[in-house]
Design goal:
This protein has helices at 35-44, 87-92, 95-113, 117-129, and strands at residues 12-17, 56-61, 71-74, 77-82, 134-137, 143-144, 150-159, 163-172, 177-182, 196-202, 205-210, 216-221. The chain is an alpha+beta fold. It is elongated.
Length: 227
């Protein structure tokens, strides 16, 4: 058996609904409500956190098919069924009640599987401490303009009302805030940390480039803020 030091670290937690109860005809979708909770939990877990050797944990809510185990591991993905969960009742709860219930359920699964359960409980405490909302600076995308008159700071914002939204904060050379511009739409439920790999200035335009397509996915014209 490999030592923990050689096991893959956990990179993603997914929240899905059991195929037995899932229906595209419903007026609501289950997993978006959990997006900020699972992303905040991942954010506060240690960067080298090892669960059970899988890089992906898929937490499946609702009744499991008869031929499936409650917990299984295939090709670097661990799937775990949470059967004692009334999805309809969950969806009828307030957003604050939903996020607390989701955090409790995800924490319980992680604690059952983890070799270091203390890291899980500490991460959950930090999610509560920030009130389930956080602006995370993405410093690799921060850039000062060529003339040093401006700086653009990029933030990944997580929260119950927005899911996941990315923002560009424009400040002047003294650090005074000038503008906040949405890079992505609100609300959003997509983890874009691997999508936005680099930023640059093209004259007076601040740009963010997509990782794989190498195309400009966001541009901010700073000329309008000249005094």
């Amino acid at each position: 058996m490999k030592g923990i030091g050689h096991m893959a670290r956990l990179k993603e937690i997914r929240v899905v609904e059991t195929p037995i109860s899932y229906s595209n005809q419903r007026a609501w979708s289950f997993h978006p409500n959990a997006h900020h909770v699972r992303q905040l939990l991942m954010h506060f877990l240690p960067s080298d956190f090892v669960l059970d050797g899988s890089s992906l944990l898929s937490v499946i809510f609702g009744e499991k098919p008869a031929d499936e185990a409650q917990c299984s591991q295939v090709l670097g993905c661990t799937s775990y069924y949470v059967e004692d969960f009334d999805i309809g009742a969950y969806m009828a709860c307030s957003p604050s009640a939903q996020q607390e219930r989701m955090l409790l359920e995800l924490t319980a699964v992680l604690v059952r599987l983890a070799s270091d359960p203390d890291a899980v409980t500490q991460a959950a405490c930090r999610v509560r401490d920030c009130a389930f909302a956080l602006h995370i600076p993405v410093r690799k995308l921060w850039r000062s303009s060529p003339d040093k008159q401006y700086r653009v700071e990029v933030y990944r914002c997580l929260g119950p009302a927005i899911g996941e939204v990315w923002q560009a904060h424009l400040v002047d050379k003294s650090g005074k805030p000038l503008a906040v511009d949405g890079i992505t739409g609100t609300p959003g439920y997509l983890d874009r940390t691997s999508h936005f790999s680099k930023s640059r200035w093209d004259g007076r335009l601040f740009q963010i480039v997509h990782t794989t397509m190498n195309s400009v996915v966001y541009s901010l014209d700073t000329t309008r803020y000249d005094t």
